[in-house]
């Protein structure tokens, strides 16, 4: 049985990835360009494709009769044509518990950077503007605290719930958005449009699908 890892380079060098158990022929590539013919050539004998970011379209899946499984090394599945997998009987799996600590921490790094104008003030320190100010203080962009602000979360899975915990530790009010157009299922959820109207910050933790693509756009933000 052959397994082909198309973009092993998406893992850091410090992570040891031994060949999967039961695989007699394990082929790895550091990266694979977005080239349908090349992907087919590399996977022509594959029973299993392993990938993080490589686009696996319907043409690729249809041209690989031996293929039984596509294993993603991340949570998002939007880089694989799921309908084609269903049509050709190819199993598709992701990593459901991926980065459940790292993503929430990264979320708050971005949130604090935006609310506290971190990039702006870092540049002002680096270029000497802060030091040159007569009061040894520069506040040309207001600083916004997270405490007492309202965070709207769209996508209440493991990561969304962890973001909730951290937000409440900062003293934020958290609103869980119900699916767009639906009545809130219980008191833990708030109508989608109400979340948009009340939130100071929106944080999305839902998969990219046909239903969620453009979920947040100029029309929804106008609410």
Sum up the structure in keywords:
223 residues, alpha/beta, Rossmann fold, 2 domains, 5-stranded parallel sheet, 4-stranded parallel sheet, 9 strands, 31% helix, globular
CATH class of the largest domain: Alpha Beta
- Tell how many strands the DSSP assignment holds: 9
Biggest sheet, spatial arrangement of strands? 2-1-3-4-5
What percentage of residues falls in helices of 4 or more residues? 25-40%
Order of helices and strands: EEHEHEHEHHHEHEEHEH
Strand content: 15-25%
Short description:
This protein has helices spanning 36-43, 58-62, 82-88, 102-115, 118-126, 129-132, 158-169, 192-198, 218-221; strands at residues 2-5, 25-28, 48-51, 69-72, 91-93, 150-154, 173-177, 189-190, 201-204.
Describe this entry's structure for a reader.
By secondary structure, the protein is of the alpha/beta class. It folds into two domains: 2-93, NAD(P)-binding Rossmann-like Domain (Rossmann fold, 3-Layer(aba) Sandwich), CATH 3.40.50.720; 102-221, NAD(P)-binding Rossmann-like Domain (Rossmann fold), CATH 3.40.50.720. The chain contains nine helices and nine strands. The strands form two sheets. It has a five-stranded parallel sheet with strand order 2-1-3-4-5, covered by helices on one side. Strands 8-7-6-9 form a four-stranded parallel sheet, with helices on both faces. Strand 3, helix 2 and strand 4 form a beta-alpha-beta unit.
